[in-house]
Amino acid sequence: MTSSAECPTCRPDPNAVIQPHKAALLKRLKRIEGQVRGVAKMIEDDRYCVDVLTQVSAAKSALDAVAMQLLADHTHGCVQSAIRSGKGDQAIEELIEVVSKLTR
Predict the structure, then answer these.
(1) N or C: fewer beta carbons within 10 Å in the chain?
(2) How far, in Å, CA of 2 to CA of 28, rounded?
(3) HSE toward the beta carbon, residue 32, CA cutoff 13 A
(4) CA distance 78 to 38
(5) Mean pLDDT per 10-residue section of the chain, whose length is 104 residues
(6) 84: which DSSP letter?
């Protein structure tokens, strides 16, 4: 695990991170938010189950794309920085844990 002081994209507050693709991520998340509202409306309107499930699948895929971008940014920022500073083992272990969570 890298400390926020060592990571070029992290700030001293461990909950605050400079996202290199912030605008694109927010745009995607707004689109996903609309998709989820659409799914809720479909359920309210008693739409055909398969149609609703298709939209749920699309929303999940969109969230997966956001997660992959965040994972790539983390790898190129925090993990790369940790490796360069000699703390790569910890960062790689954290990365493996995150990937494991994403693939469940």
Answers:
(1) C
(2) 28
(3) 18
(4) 36
(5) 52 70 96 98 98 98 96 92 92 95 92
(6) H
